[in-house]
Amino acid sequence: MKDLIYRAQAFATKAHQRINHQRKYTRAPYVDHLAATAKLVASVTTDSETIAAAWLHDTVEDTAVTIQDVQAEFGENVAGLVLELTDISTSSDGNRSSRKAIDLQHLACASPRAKTVKLADLTNNCIDITKHDARFSITYLSEMAALLEVLKDGNAELYALAQKTHTRCAVKLGLKGVLPATALTSESHFHRGPLASMVPRLFIDAFSSKDIAMELYSFDTVIPSQDVRAFMEAESLYVVGIRSEGRVVGYVRDKDLVGEKCGDKMQEFRPGQILSGDSTMTDLIQVLTRHSYCFVAVLDSVVGLITRDDMNKPTIRMWLFGIVTIIEMHLTQSIKTNYAGNAWQSLLTKNRLGKALSLYNERRRRKRNCELLDCLQLSDKMHILLQDPEFLKSLGFDTSKSGKRAAKELESLRNNLAHSQDIVIDDWPQIARLSRQVEELIHGVH
Question: Which domains are delineated in the chain?
């Protein structure tokens, strides 16, 4: 069905364009990568669901789209393929090596169709990364070699192409053998966490998923749908749990209660959709990046529900404002570490420096102890640091333009938090990125 492929192409293109998603090294529209991946898949199969999944394979990880959105738009089969292609690890699972091991096992259990898409994805990424980033290429080629070991039951033609591309790129870089990622120790000269103060760690660890979870009401599978629907309407609920033999094994939405029994339209919990009650907010945000609903378990029993709308609750808004503050603390510390004295002053415009000096003098007049650096705006601190290529790399930016765009998004999030604006609709990708960055800064997870 070509219509399915066209709809997937349009859906993915819109989702990535909405966040101005670009390829890291070339700044080309991200849809170019999706198109290249889908083209490779289409060269070896006419299966419309597999080709559609190729177009959609990054929407859940990189945009505001969830697995449930994909399911509603394209059906369970396509959604299942996309889920198989989506990482399930979270920041609390450890460093990059530990997280990759979890995602590797997830992919190893994927279907041959999903593995075919992954082979096309790896092939295109391998060419792009080794062409533009020789340093990271060593890590990528090592990880790709491990992935190829579990992708052998994908399409044979694409598997051979991926192997050939991997070998050719390794030879081009002069690598006789691919080093394991854990052997890489090169560091930037810029300070890059963990933050010295214990305050950020205490703040981050003070919040957990159970602090904002709502109670999940549940019903046995045989309860009539009309009775459950009536209860949900009375309690203003749109999701309830479904029990089997006394345990919650899935959920149902109010709009899906069309069968005779409430269990007829039950949706099973997907991999990575359930968190323990003491999971961090960062883990919670990563789950809600992939799924519309996150379920919370206590003592192996699912008892709570969290949705993206809950991110607007006072508790999570307070946590996010703290996240922005921690980022600013890191910027301040980086300036102090990497610019002797007030050498950073020459990097500001006269107007911005003048405003900082005015505020500094007023605070001193009021006998408030402070430094001139403390009087800079967040945007000023970002402006100073983004002028150094090494700092750009330390934060994962390859150009000053991408860094400035992230700084603008950070200010937008802070302003929306301060003025009680909805932070889910426009700020979600920024929230997901910030939570990961702060986790790395505080706990030194790379």
Answer: 2-183 (1.10.3210.10), 213-305 (3.10.580.10), 314-443 (no CATH)
